[in-house]
């Protein structure tokens, strides 16, 4: 068992089912086993992020970069096959419309800067980890209404890694109220921040109605500063939360250090998965 500041990090030996989706019965969130040394996939020191290819299939488990076709709705996410697109749809659905809004801020996806592209892959790959972290950090496990009150704000540092979805490390994590988030997004992105948040509130109303309050979207804002000339990338991520799943006793375990768990999952490229 690994120790950190006296707090227990999730048991590394096996994956743990945290909850079951009440709707379809087959969505399980797992904190995957950590690899023993976590060195897998690291690229030689000195490898620059901007030298690595940026176009890959958007399905979290796929590294294919050939024969990609764009999602016909948002023209953002690209897939190597219809099988990958189908598999990713539950994750992509909420993001699809937001993609259109967010793309407007950099002039459409054909102009998407490389750093932004890496960030998009990272956000898709770590969806499960972000969900688990948000449920604990925002107190959604205690009061489901917290899903709409606060958001996770995550600062990232680029790192060279073999997997296109693993090219960042967590620099800091902050919890903000939605009002603070709005101000913060306005500073980072005066053009698109407000529209993105308005779209988010619309999607929240829809999903709550469709599932009679059993599901909601909470939010994470991820941003990264790149190397010279790369500027900054920011991505707003709606996170689907399920009332039954959020109520899982595993999330209320006082010894669970969500921030360290998130950092380790990102560092070792071991995302928590919805299976
Ligand atoms: Zn694929
Ligand atoms: Zn799409």
UniProtKB/TrEMBL annotation:
<keyword id="KW-0479">Metal-binding</keyword>
<dbReference type="GO" id="GO:0008270">
    <property type="term" value="F:zinc ion binding"/>
</dbReference>
<dbReference type="InterPro" id="IPR002893">
    <property type="entry name" value="Znf_MYND"/>
</dbReference>
<protein>
    <recommendedName>
        <fullName>MYND-type domain-containing protein</fullName>
    </recommendedName>
</protein>
<feature type="compositionally biased region" description="Basic residues">
    <location>
        <begin position="1"/>
        <end position="11"/>
    </location>
</feature>
<feature type="region of interest" description="Disordered">
    <location>
        <begin position="1"/>
        <end position="22"/>
    </location>
</feature>
<dbReference type="Pfam" id="PF01753">
    <property type="entry name" value="zf-MYND"/>
</dbReference>
<keyword id="KW-0863">Zinc-finger</keyword>
<keyword id="KW-0862">Zinc</keyword>
<feature type="domain" description="MYND-type">
    <location>
        <begin position="59"/>
        <end position="96"/>
    </location>
</feature>
